[in-house]
Design the sequence.
């Protein structure tokens, strides 16, 4: 393979989130995950819940020093709403939490790690879910703005990259469509309304950030799954288009272009599923487009036209128009069950370039989950994850090609740094450059960690 090189100021980072890494120390309020785990532990892999983490709350300095050792220069994590805010209605800050995030951010900066702070990684405060139905409620939008304003005020002098939401569609799909996230409600109307309120909340905090005259940038992280239709047959192509509208464009278009794709709105109206909005919201959405986009990419979305029509009396879902297509002989990550298709990263990059005005963007997550990774430990207790090195190299190869062709990508963030807890999958799939011993939270750099250290140092990823 030819030598792959990246721009000099490229951000080489990893990504994680507060609820998946911090642990419970000094955390005063529950998120939906904390509550749900207490209520239904059997829904979580091996019944391991969100209190079992790498204990970043106490071990953040150790992590930052390993990041530095590995030559990484950026890290994306999230500030937990349910940790930072003591009283959700007034927006009163918990001082202990503020001090923790101050220490954490300062440690990163002192060690040359650019902090990218996200404000929502699926972690709705339980109280707001229970009282108001989370983002189905417009009141919760106002409360989220208070939280974001508090975070900007506390950390905006040092944090230069802000992210309003991580993968909003993964969250709303899980909560209101696919029964994967509490409150496990199956309602398209709720899916559509919560997505709309998240978009509104996003636009309002972009506006608040700009009014505050901070010197950084603000964006959103989406999982822009490239829809790949089974064939060029018009029915399959149309299936791909509908999936694209409901999974990708629902955020990509209004966040970057300032408005929804009209076809999306037409389908909602046709099925009597339109969200409630105020006319002045549309102005806020139009005016507050993002400075950059973060894109999470793991696998493509292969779709086909439905083989049979759904029961016309069943409630509407976008899957009336398409269904997943399991292409024979796809290349699979046999350890996680997800498809491996690195070229999609190039397709995404070129789509951003050609269809979204070449807006500044970065890879906010990409990575390889491995179930039972312990089996790759050598006799010295060191994980030899050559499969992960190959995975990263292939994706970087396609990314470099896109950058070479003019795509405006400014960074690559691997999921994740230290193996972290992952929602209902807990520790089933390990993703880290650094492994975590769950008994004593000890960290050990994997082979991929040492590989990336050398690759970044030499700017050579071949
Ligand atoms: C991403 C999420 O989509 O997938 C992360 O942003 C999550 O929060 C990651 O941990 C991996 O998920 P899983 O289910 O393979 O552990």
Sequence:
């Amino acid at each position: 393979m030819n030598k792959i090189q990246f721009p000099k100021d490229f951000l080489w980072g990893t990504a994680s989130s507060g609820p998946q890494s911090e642990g419970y120390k000094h955390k005063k309020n529950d998120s939906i995950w904390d509550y749900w785990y207490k209520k239904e532990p059997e829904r979580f892999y091996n019944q391991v819940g969100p209190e079992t983490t790498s204990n970043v709350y106490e071990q953040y300095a150790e992590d930052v020093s390993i990041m530095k050792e590995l030559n990484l220069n950026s890290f994306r994590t999230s500030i937990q709403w349910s940790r930072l805010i003591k009283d959700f209605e007034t927006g009163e800050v918990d001082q202990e939490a503020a001090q923790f995030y101050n220490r954490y951010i300062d440690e990163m900066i002192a060690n040359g790690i650019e902090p990218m702070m996200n404000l929502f990684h699926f972690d709705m405060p339980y109280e707001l879910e229970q009282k108001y139905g989370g983002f189905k409620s417009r009141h919760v939008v106002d409360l989220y703005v208070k939280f974001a304003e508090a975070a900007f005020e506390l950390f905006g002098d040092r944090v230069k990259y802000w992210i309003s939401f991580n993968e909003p569609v993964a969250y709303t799909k899980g909560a209101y469509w696919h029964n994967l996230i509490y409150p496990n409600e199956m309602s398209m109307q709720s899916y559509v309304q919560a997505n709309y309120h998240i978009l509104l909340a996003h636009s309002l905090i972009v506006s608040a950030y700009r009014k505050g005259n901070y010197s950084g940038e603000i964006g959103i992280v989406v999982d822009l799954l490239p829809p790949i239709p089974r064939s060029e047959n018009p029915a399959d192509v149309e299936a791909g288009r509908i999936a694209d509208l409901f999974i990708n464009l629902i955020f990509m278009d209004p966040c970057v272009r300032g408005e929804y794709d009209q076809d999306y709105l037409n389908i909602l109206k046709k099925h009597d599923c339109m969200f409630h909005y105020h006319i002045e919201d549309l102005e806020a959405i139009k005016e507050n487009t993002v400075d950059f986009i973060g894109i999470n990419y793991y696998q493509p979305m292969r779709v086909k036209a439905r083989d049979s029509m759904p029961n016309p009396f069943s409630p509407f879902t976008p899957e009336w128009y398409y269904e997943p297509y399991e292409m024979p002989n796809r290349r699979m990550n046999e350890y996680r069950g997800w498809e491996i298709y690195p070229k999609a990263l190039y397709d995404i990059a070129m789509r951003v370039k050609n269809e979204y005005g070449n807006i500044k963007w970065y890879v906010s997550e990409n990575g390889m989950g491995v179930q039972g990774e312990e089996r790759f430990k050598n006799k010295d207790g060191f994980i030899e994850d050559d499969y992960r090195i190959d995975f990263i190299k292939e994706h970087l190869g396609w990314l470099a090609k896109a950058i070479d062709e003019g795509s405006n990508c400014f960074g690559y963030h691997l999921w994740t740094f230290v193996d972290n807890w992952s929602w209902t999958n807990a520790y089933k799939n390990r993703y880290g450059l650094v492994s975590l011993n769950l008994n004593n939270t000890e960290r050990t750099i994997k082979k991929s960690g040492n590989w990336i250290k050398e690759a970044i140092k030499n700017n050579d990823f071949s």
Summary: Residues 11-458 form a domain with the TIM Barrel fold (CATH 3.20.20.80). The mean pLDDT is 97.
